[in-house]
Automatic annotation (TrEMBL), chains A, B:
Pfam families listed in its UniProt record: 2-Hacid_dh (PF00389), 2-Hacid_dh_C (PF02826)
Location of the D-isomer specific 2-hydroxyacid dehydrogenase NAD-binding domain: 103-276
D-isomer specific 2-hydroxyacid dehydrogenase catalytic domain segment(s): 10-307
Family: Belongs to the D-isomer specific 2-hydroxyacid dehydrogenase family.
Taxonomy of the source species: Bacteria, Bacillati, Actinomycetota, Actinomycetes, Pseudonocardiales
GO molecular function per UniProt: NAD binding; oxidoreductase activity, acting on the CH-OH group of donors, NAD or NADP as acceptor
CDD domains in alphabetical order: 2-Hacid_dh_1
Protein name, per record: Phosphoglycerate dehydrogenase
Keyword Oxidoreductase (UniProt): yes
Domain of life: Bacteria
InterPro entries membership: D-isomer_2_OHA_DH_cat_dom, D-isomer_DH_CS, D-isomer_DH_NAD-bd, NAD(P)-bd_dom_sf
Record's keyword terms, sorted: NAD, Oxidoreductase
Length: 318, 318
């Protein structure tokens, strides 16, 4: 029996799976009950925080798949300590998010928000813009999304370094990878700082007042990872006081971003609603990744994208 | 004697040249008088239309340099038929304009204008976006700016073709180059259509109702060339009636764009004020190109960027 935690909508393209297993769709309220007889759980509503509270109902669960790259919503102690195999949707969002990041970098460099504001007032006002070629970017997070970002930014002419858990040289995508724990030592070397690390105990609040103070005043900060990587109050202060030049934020510690957040109204901030990876067809792509694992599971084959529950992410083969 | 047609400001970095020649700065009103004794004219105010009307004053002029890539403001019959050598600022804007074009493509694909409008209303509204990888772009204009655009778009994952005066295969940047006179036959194959051709009798009004009718309804049109490449009324109609999906326009047949233009207020149009190539330092770069030619001219060496006055642009070596 497969339990599926749906959001407002059921996942698409489930018909073949429904032919091969008993599938029980549930919302958060029914999850504990649905888990009682479930062998597997597909967390399609990947932003739901309902799983820990319903976990007591699980009885025979052996596999949990989440329709996202970040697994932080299900990294609670009882799951970590269980034998339940956790898999994620690694790969679905890589290239879309990379394009999104490049789009925000170009928006800053070419002052596209300024052009749009002037257009709204039918005002012709020439400004000088910036090159992106030759500028430097630090990608904090060296998983597949970070790698795709690095490759695309390099193709567009930026110089790119990485920051991750394990410092190293000669990485195929990043060249040098710096230790993310020592961010303040080198973050000032970069024009753009991109946050795409998995949210773990080590990365929570990584971007705090110290990190922003160490950045260039001309630096732009881009977050396509998780809102909790950032101490939001410190970011707001840094932006207000001109300690950094701008931010493009697709993720927030509270989502939807509350209407009273000062981030909405800051001229040097681009807010988007957790959509950087969500290209047309993304929901089908997420079910495709799940289905691939489902058929492996039915056939007793090894699953793909197995999360290392101590690390909090799928270890890279690079 | 060197005459310099300045705009509001004199060009920077002219001191070395002032040490070596009599330099007379003039505005449009004084141009005919200044031309009387001038051996060379530097049109620094590159959008000025004053040169044809002042030409009768020229007496001993041998060289005219214009601080732009497009030479259409000085392509009047008397100059064409004279022995005056015409040079331009080829090369200064190539990579900046290419970045600008990629920025507008990403803005469309990721609906950045929509995000900014929603942000202004503090509204969280998830949308699905588009990939740019695998999409197709037609670059109309195969000079150095068009080539830089082609290279950058290809690096970012788009498939790129060119359109120009001379159809050919195996072009190093474009692969296939289609004949721009037959635009309607193939423009429907592309997701993005970029106008960057020089303005000549052959290209004036190239983008008319027929061309827009032949484009995909999902196509976006980007103009970083000259406003007169487009029949503006036809473009407005095509955008209003949904015959194309959007336009990013940096140049217009009248500049500044008049406040009553419907383009200002269309949601699917990005207006910018003829600035796509103007990165910080561009004025110095323009004078650098002029100065390089000035020293060649003083030394009796061949000039760079000599315009073929029959064609209306510097012939490509490719």
């Amino acid at each position: 029996m497969l339990a599926v935690l749906s959001g407002e909508k059921h996942p698409p393209d489930m018909h073949p799976i429904e032919q091969s297993a008993v599938v029980r769709y549930t919302d958060a309220a029914g999850l504990a009950d649905a888990l009682r007889d479930a062998d597997a759980l597909f967390v399609y509503d990947f932003l739901s925080t309902a799983v820990p509270g319903a976990w007591h109902g699980s009885n025979r669960l052996r596999w949990l798949h989440i329709a996202s790259a970040g697994v932080d919503p299900v990294m609670f102690p009882a799951l970590r300590e269980s034998d339940v195999v956790l898999t994620n949707s690694r790969g679905v969002f890589d290239d879309s998010i990379a394009e999104y990041v490049l789009g925000t970098i170009l928006a800053f460099a070419k002052d596209l928000p300024g052009s749009l504001r002037l257009q709204q007032r039918s005002t012709w006002q020439h400004r000088e813009t910036e090159r992106i070629g030759g500028r430097s970017a630090l990608v904090v997070g060296t998983g597949p999304i970070g790698r795709s970002i690095a490759r695309l930014l390099k193709a567009a002419g930026l110089r790119v370094s990485g920051a991750g858990r394990t410092p190293r040289d000669g990485d195929p995508d990043f060249g040098e990878v710096r230790p993310s724990t020592e961010l303040g030592d080198y973050v000032g070397e970069f024009d753009y700082v991109v946050a795409v690390a998995p949210l773990t105990e080590q990365t929570k609040g990584l971007f705090d007042a110290n990190a922003f103070a160490a950045m260039r005043e001309s630096a732009r900060f881009i977050n396509v990872g998780r809102g909790e990587l950032v101490v939001t109050g410190d970011l707001v202060d840094a932006l207000r006081e001109g300690r950094i030049a701008g931010a493009a934020l697709d993720v927030f510690d509270t989502e939807p971003l509350p209407v009273e957040s000062p981030l909405w109204t800051m001229d040097n901030v681009l807010v988007s609603p957790h959509m950087s990876g969500d290209v047309v067809g993304w929901r089908n792509a997420l079910v495709e990744v799940f289905a691939d694992n489902f058929w492996r599971w039915r056939a007793g084959q090894p699953l793909r994208n197995v999360v290392d529950k101590r690390l909090g992410y799928v270890p890279s083969t690079n």
